[in-house]
Amino acid sequence: MSSVLLVDDTGLFDAVADDIARRTHCRPLRASNGTEALATARREKPDLIFLDAQMSGMTGIDVCRVLKADSHLGHRPVVVAAATDVSAEAARRAGADACIEKPFDTPVVFDIMRRYLQLSPRDAARAAVEWSVTFWRDGAQHEGTLRDLSRGGFFIRTPVRQPVGARLEISFDLPGQKGRTVVAEAIVVRVGQDADRGLGCRFFRLTAGSRAHLEECLRLLEAGVPVGRI
To answer: Which option is the CATH number for 3-117: 3.40.228.10, 3.40.50.1400, 3.30.70.260, 3.40.50.2300?
Structure first.
């Protein structure tokens, strides 16, 4: 079984670790500082390593530099999550194989896992819903109907055409959950035609609160609880 080491001191990778455990056959390993990261890497020999650049004490960039100088670990891919271009450039100079921009969401990590491990997540179960959704692109506001919702994405029934790759800002209320609204960014991955006219999207960024609301709602829907009673 492949393993992925996720290293941060702020909970940056908490949700990602849960998704990896639930949706792949890959084992997530955790470390909360640089010293622990190096010890875990040397003991477990992970197939892929993610580091937070901005850790206190020994930073992710420091850890990356040590890993790449290690004759037993230097060939293992290291990905650094950086909040600034300066940090990303420092990570590359330290030998990082790739950098991702903070904040990020699980699909970004899964894309990296596909690239380095040829490992794809299991498709998330989709809930059949019919909810109103508002979405924006380039400042223009549009309305549609949210359908086929999952932890990874959704379909919007709408006559508004958007190209594959377009980034949308979206907002929708969770029926039966008073005051709970999901606010996120999404990327268009499919454009439906004719009777299936609309946009297939995957989540790109979710706030921590929105992720928690969505997770609880989907858990109840999967358990067969009627939407109106959630």
So the answer is: 3.40.50.2300
